[in-house]
Write a structure and sequence with these properties.
Elements (H helix, E strand, L loop, with lengths): L1 H24 L12 E2 L2 H7 L17 E6 L4 H16 L5 E6 L4 H6 L7 E5 L6 E4 L4 H12 L4
Parallel strand pairs: 1-3, 2-3
Antiparallel strand pairs: 2-4, 4-5
Length: about 150
């Protein structure tokens, strides 16, 4: 019985050491490595993106081009798109802003933009009209939209 208890203790200690060694060999993420994607409420949207209650003509309020992802937590295609948008936010962190709008929580915003299927992604250039894409599209399509619509690269 004592041998079994000793063997279990040794296995437990070795497991903890292995986990610790594995954790310390991986680089830690810093605040600079990750980009925060903001969840927008209607009030946030009206202040940061477009005040559709006040303006009848599109007037973007942001200081950088933006992406707005209309999604829901239960939506599987939205879960496919989320890491792609997070990667784009990281890659272009100094040039664009990425927002998310939960259509279940912000039904009015979804209605204003005619969201009938999700994911729907709104690309908003600094100047000019926004463009919408729908569906879980490949990463290359999102990259192309960022370059052509937001960053104006041809």
């Amino acid at each position: 019985m004592n041998r079994l208890l000793l063997l279990l203790c040794v296995i437990c200690v070795l497991s903890m050491e292995a986990c610790h060694a594995q954790r310390t060999t991986q680089p830690e993420k810093t605040a600079q490595d990750s980009v925060q994607i903001s969840l927008l409420t209607k009030a946030d949207f009206l202040k940061q993106v477009f005040n559709y209650e006040k303006d009848s003509v599109w007037n973007f309020l942001g200081d950088k081009p933006a992406i707005v992802d209309f999604y829901a937590d239960w939506c599987q295609p939205c879960k496919v798109v989320a890491p792609i948008l997070a990667e784009l936010a990281q890659t272009h962190k100094d040039r664009i802003v990425v927002y998310k709008v939960d259509v279940d929580q912000e039904r009015e915003l979804a209605a204003v933009f005619g969201i009938e299927s999700i994911p729907s992604v709104l690309f908003i250039p600094k100047e000019g009209r926004p463009s919408m894409v729908r569906g879980a599209l490949p990463k290359a399509v999102f990259e192309q939209a960022v370059n052509e619509i937001l960053l104006k690269k041809q």
